[in-house]
Amino acid sequence: MLRFRELLRHVHRDERGAVSLETILIIGAIALPILIFLIKVGWPRVKNYFYDGMENLENESDRAKSPT
Known about the structure:
The chain is mainly α. The protein has helices spanning 2-13, 18-65.
């Protein structure tokens, strides 16, 4: 039990990696709202662009199939 207590005390006092963890949390706090914004605003535009391209492709395909 004493070894376990000393291990916990050692882990609690060890500050290695704290700066890295704080940096990751800050980057996440900045990136998450940007990602949410892109999904809410950007995705409908991308989806519409894709659907327009597919519609154009289908129309051109139909036009290529029909004899002229």
